[in-house]
Design a protein that fits this description.
By secondary structure, the chain is of the alpha+beta class. It has 13 helices and twelve strands. The strands form three sheets. It has a five-stranded antiparallel sheet with strand order 2-1-5-4-3, sandwiched between helices. Strands 7-9-10-12-11 form a five-stranded mixed sheet, covered by helices on one side.
Amino acid sequence: MTPSDPPTDGDRSLWAKNPAAWLAAIVDSSDDAIVGKTLDSIIRSWNAGAARMFGYTAEEIIGRPVTDLMPPELKHEEVGIVARLSRGERVDHYQTVRVKKDGTRIDVSLSVSPIRDATGRIVGAAKIARDITEERRLRDAERQLSEQLQEQAVELEQQVEEAQSLQEELEQTNDELHRAAENARDAQARAESANRAKSVFLATMSHELRTPLNAIAGYLDLLRLGLRGPLTEEQRTDLDRIKRNQETLLRLIEDVLDFAKLESGRVEYRLADLPIDELLRTLETFVAPLLDKKGITYHFAPCGDGLVARADRDKVEQIMLNLLSNAAKFTDHGRIEVRCTSRDDKVVIDVVDTGRGISSELLATIFEPFVQGEQELTRTAEGTGLGLSISRQLARGMGGDVLVRSESGSGSTFTLVLPRTVER
């Protein structure tokens, strides 16, 4: 009979005739170490689980004192355990350290119960030991990760406070410049100096924040791959949540870094002939998870193989992903469509959505840095408010532009305009 087979009448009869044999088979098949000892701490029984855990065979260990399995500094524990057993008490889930045959120390959880003879007198004890070394290592790793995350959170709060402090200084500087209207050239120079300081600060802050966030991602991957020990489903869920939040922070920091580069004029453009259809066909893969999550339909209308722009491929891809991500964020149902055409010496790419739309009074401000539109939208959409500002600046750096047409409640159309390569 296998362990999964139901017991037959013959099995029940065998159990009734020889229950001790059945019990011995169960004990010997256990993964835990099950050890019997006398009250004077001499080992009298030793199952296969104990042999695997401690490295001793039954022949090697039976008859020896159980203190042979204890580190020298913990041998006193046996006195307390025997005292409790003598009073008829159980010892449950007692965590301590034991020593294997090869000298290796392992963390164990012990449960010890008294054994009584036919008259009820306590004559020995049954001990169950479970190896919790890997479990303890995982808890230690989780604690260390939690401490690191807390430290990073404190550092991030300090950086935010410094940013707010700098912003206050910049606002104060601007007020002083307005009051010094009689010396316009001096005021302009001071404003440019303050702006450069802001860009340098943003670039430095973004770099310093990315480094610990990348380190956090590395430790998360180690834990998720099980390299620090097996994970429970609850622990894996918690690590996935930490990973998502780490990725969100990293995306926000990348936006700030891109903005700082644009502000300081350090962006380089590698212009080349760019087939528009080829690039646009690759975009759906990047935004598909967000579209599928919200049930939004996506449609791309090909432009034709002859439509070629003169642009930097990476910058165009960044702009289009920004526009598509924005469309997905602010579209609760319906569809998003990408279509393109040529107009004189320009390539025109439209991203059309059926989302919430933008009120007319906000259309003039949405391309300004750190603007996300209506307050109720900012509470439901992640981001720094830099995406559209960055996209327009990148497009203009390539000789193009980003435009918008929208009405509140009627969806939006964002248009990327690029220089067209003229056939010769």
